[in-house]
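Homework help board

Subject: predicted structure for assignment chain

Our instructor gave us this sequence and asked us to write out the predicted structure in token form, then describe one feature. I got the tokens but I'm not sure how to describe them. Can anyone check?
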Amino acid sequence: MIGVRFKADEIYVPEVLIAARAMHAGMSVVKPLIVNSGIAEKGTVLMGTVKGDLHDIGKNLVTMMIEGAGYNVIDLGVDVTGDKFVAAVEEYKPQVLGMSALLTTTMAQMKTNIELLKPYQRSLKIMIGGAPVTQKFADEIGADGYAADAASAVDRVREFFAN
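My token output:
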């Protein structure tokens, strides 16, 4: 359990990155087998780094760990505009949307995106994260959840799907 060890400060980002790469390589082999076996994925999560921000290491870790927990993850990449988030919500109909930001200057884009996504919030939970992001900020902008790290993000996704 890499996530548990990371949360307990027993391992650090470099070890998590190595484990995530190994998991990603393994998932590329296992995922087609799962699809062909008829085992249903637990739900769909849409991920992206907000407009103006090109950082993706944290988002990639979160994405890999959520995939590893059995969810279908659609990764929109970096520098994702609000309109692109809305279009992806309409196309993929995810139950959870995750937004990340590393730069404090791009955090305001999260609030803008949440405003654009209000018509979908009846069936969509919005989770935010990134180094400068806090629970207080998540509460202020109307996000449904916040995760400080990849393991916490998986826990939050599980909570969203349990409710």
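Reply (TA_rk): Your tokens look well-formed. For the description, you could write something like this. The chain has one domain: 41-162. That's the kind of observation they're looking for.
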